[in-house]
Design goal:
This protein is an alpha/beta fold. The chain has two domains: 237 residues, Rossmann fold; 181 residues, Glycogen Phosphorylase B (Rossmann fold, 3-Layer(aba) Sandwich), CATH 3.40.50. It contains 16 helices and 14 strands. An eight-stranded mixed β-sheet has the order 3-4-2-1-5-6-7-8, sandwiched between helices.
Length: 478
């Protein structure tokens, strides 16, 4: 039995939540020492790698960090890498990043889209649609025979659009960071429920035609194979963090603890996105149970759709042991993670296999224990059990969560041991270098493009049609 697993009937009169932080991408280092694209060991093995995602560096959203990090690593390994993204930032729909620039050897082509923002589903759908159109035009215009196009899942259904316009002679790799429409269906998103079966068929058709589909966990792979996607077309590559940027820090060396006046209190933290996919009722209940222990503090760092709801619950219960702080800059990620003694990760059970909270990798890199609220047999629960750096609790088990927090708060030795286990697991499996090696193996194994390129006139007509459609969509959205 895990040391943090509550004994039958055991409980402590107070306990609280914990948290993690989404790994952030470090500032782009100078281009000195980065080989010219296509000049390194990968030169001559294939054409360019073209990554497509709605956000790219310097945006700091989770998908941007993952995609940008891979792009920079591949460029450093000698691949010629291009990125197609929007001009927006996740936290600023009105941003207007440069249309064309090169960062660390990655050529970035930012397309024009509507910028209505994330506030309402309808507006977000328009932003999605205009990116689909503009990205499709860019693929038709820019992709060449021998290129490998990597389509991500922001916005949803991107594989369908890209596969339908993929120029002859190119290969498609889909990078599934989540599964749509299943996520939207599980969250009961209006406008998706009725057409989810159709969307799933379209998506699976595009996956079946791809050269490879990269998924981030075993459960996600199993869900797709159950739907008829060949296991031979699926590769599991987990998300990761950068162990050189995030490293274990002793709590006394963390300046944020002094700035936020955390003192010597045992800090249970949740850092990152507080979105629809996460569960916070159990966390708030645990904080309520621990309200009488002045040595324990719950710290929420970040924002998201459910932040206002969490603030209301804390205010209604008049909890004195909960503190809120805004999301911190990427430069302070290591400190943010190190300011917390134990982290909480949450995920609604119905989303297991559809999403994996990427914050777990940053927590492991920081050498901190984690407590998970969700499906105890899910991906994160299994990770904590297999590597012994925390425990999982079912939704509603506030007593068990509170007892685990109390036990950690009174046992620095246990906390340290679990934290050491976390960093050891990270170094062995989840550091960015391991993930990059998996991507290199995948790309090395892809066949060369074989289809003949279309005639010049056909290509010009296709490009003109796609661009006209994108311009009309953008103009109509404003």
């Amino acid at each position: 039995m895990n040391e943090l697993t509550p004994r039958a009937g055991a409980m402590h009169p107070g306990a609280s939540p914990v948290g993690g932080a989404v790994p952030r991408l470090a500032k782009a280092p100078p281009t000195e020492g980065v080989p010219p694209p296509g000049s390194g060991p990968a030169a001559g093995r294939r054409g360019r790698i073209i990554l497509i995602n709605r956000y790219f560096y310097p945006d700091l959203s989770a998908t941007s960090q993952m995609v940008s990090s891979l792009a920079f690593e591949l460029t450093a390994r000698g691949f010629a890498v291009h990125a197609i993204a929007s001009r927006q930032r996740y936290d600023d729909a009105a941003a207007a990043l440069p249309r064309h620039e090169t960062i660390r050897g990655v050529t970035i082509h930012r397309v024009g889209t509507s910028s209505l923002g994330r506030g309402r589903l309808g507006r977000r759908a328009v932003d999605y649609a205009t990116f689909h159109l503009a990205a499709a035009a860019a693929v038709v215009s820019d992709a060449r025979p021998g290129d490998c196009v990597v389509a991500c899942t922001d916005p949803p259904m991107l594989s369908v659009t890209v596969q339908s316009v993929l120029p002859p002679g190119t290969l498609l790799v889909n990078w599934l960071l989540d599964l749509f429409p299943e996520v939207a269906f599980s969250l009961q998103v209006k406008g998706v429920l009725g057409i989810a079966p159709l969307l799933r068929r379209l998506r699976n058709r595009s996956l079946a035609k791809a050269a490879r589909n990269v998924v981030i966990g075993g459960r996600m792979a199993a869900l797709l194979t159950d739907q008829g996607i060949s296991p031979n077309a699926i590769t599991v590559i987990p998300n990761c963090s950068d162990g050189s940027l995030v490293r274990p820090l002793p709590r006394e060396a963390v300046a944020l603890r002094r700035e936020w006046r955390l003192g010597n209190r045992f800090v249970v933290g949740y850092s990152g996105n507080m979105g629809r996919a996460h569960e916070f009722g159990t966390v708030i209940d645990a904080a309520d149970r621990l309200r009488g222990d002045p040595g324990i503090l719950f710290l929420f760092v970040g924002d998201g759709h459910r932040l206002a709801e969490i603030r209301r619950a804390v205010a209604e219960r008049n909890l004195p042991n909960v503190l809120f702080r805004p999301l911190q800059s990427e430069e302070r990620l290591c400190e943010t993670l190190g300011a917390m003694d134990v982290h909480l990760v949450t995920l609604r059970p119905e989303l297991e296999g559809l999403i994996i909270p990427s914050k777990i990798y940053g927590i492991a890199a920081a050498g901190r224990p984690a407590l998970f609220v969700g499906d105890r047999q899910g991906e994160v629960g299994a990770m904590l059990h297999d590597h012994d750096f925390g425990s999982a609790f079912a939704i509603g088990d506030a007593d068990g969560l509170a007892e685990a927090i109390h036990r950690l708060s009174t046992s620095p030795t246990l906390c340290r041991r679990l934290g050491d286990n976390a960093r050891r697991a990270f170094d062995e499996q989840f550091d960015r270098r391991h993930v990059v090696e998996k991507w290199l193996a995948l790309l090395d194994g892809l066949p060369a493009g074989t289809r003949a390129p279309p005639t010049g006139r056909a290509m010009r007509d296709r490009v003109a049609a796609e661009r006209a459609a994108a311009e009309r969509a953008v103009g109509g959205a404003k």
